[in-house]
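It is worth pausing here to work through a concrete case rather than discussing structure prediction in the abstract. The textbook approach is simple: state the sequence, then state the predicted structure, then interpret. We follow exactly that order.
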Amino acid sequence: MILDPNEGEQEIDKADVVGRSKGLSAMPEGFDKMLTKRELRDLVEFLAGLKEGAKVEAPTGHGG
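Step two, the predicted structure:
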């Protein structure tokens, strides 16, 4: 199963696959340089929580 932004989900037979290549990241290039290590870690944790379907609250600060 692949997800095409224009066509939606499509099922393709494995025998029809000629090759694979990695697509572009959804994260803009250099975005990781705009965040501190802690902010990047918090972002990854937040996004992972969304993927798991868990209710995750955005961090409100770096209190300690």
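Step three, interpretation. The longest strand covers residues 2-4. The chain has a mean pLDDT of 80.
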